[in-house]
Amino acid sequence: MKLGPATIERVIDIDPFELGLSFLFPGAQLEDLHPHAALLAPDHIDFDSANLLLAIQSFVLRVGGLTILIDSCVGESKQRDRRRDWHQRIGTGYLSALAAAGVTPDDVDIVLCTHLHADHVGWNTRLENGRWIPTFPRARYMIGQAELAAWQAEELRAPGVANHGAYVDSVLPVIEAGLVETVTDGFELTRGVAVLPLPGHSPGQIGLDLNYGESRHVLFCGDAIHSPTQVFKPEWTSAFCANPQEAVASRMGLLERAAQDGSLIAPSHIRNAIGFRVERCGCDFRPAYVCEAT
Q1: How many helices (H) and strands (E) does the chain have?
Q2: pTM of the model
Q3: Average pLDDT over residues 213-217
């Protein structure tokens, strides 16, 4: 996708990534989505199995002379005992997919971590001679200040336990390498690219607000929206949200804004599209998918 001076590409790690509807969204009812089947199936939900269909992926944003990698997926060789599909993965092809997008690890200027869950930071590091080293050695790894503080506190409370142990193997090594820069709301990575506060799913989740000209925006929103199902049901919060009330507020803010100004919303786990715009439908919302644009 080319948008004014910016280009956006998706780099896939896992697709589809299937999760039961009621597993991810406790209390959600499949029948509530039947009226929206034409917009949700077959890409985003399997109505026969009641599974959500997600992707685990990175966005590569090129703008202002920078190559920005937004989130780094699951990674390889990571000890993830509680998720068999993430555990000790090898030969995934992620770096080859990145190369196919014209990006080598040395080309990445910024790794933007929307939040520090294990499926968003895995390729921050790679295993070399028994040590975790930064995958992107020239990059600044940008993490929300509140997000990093929350996970550091959790790590002190229960070392190596929370979040599949991702802090130890995917965050701490880049801190020790001196590559981490903490950012706060509104921080500009370059002209027209600013940090967007989106707390709730995690304590200090952030996104990016890309202004690509004449009040046109792309809102990279991490897991503030997991699935287009939440456009129809924004009150559905994930089982992994740190603060469900904040998560709903962040999601509603995104939807309200997009409906008003036409912003393109780009969630981390969207399949087969860069993202979607939002239309008003009475008092509710509906997604309008966008695969390509110029």
Answers
A1: 9, 17
A2: 0.96
A3: 90
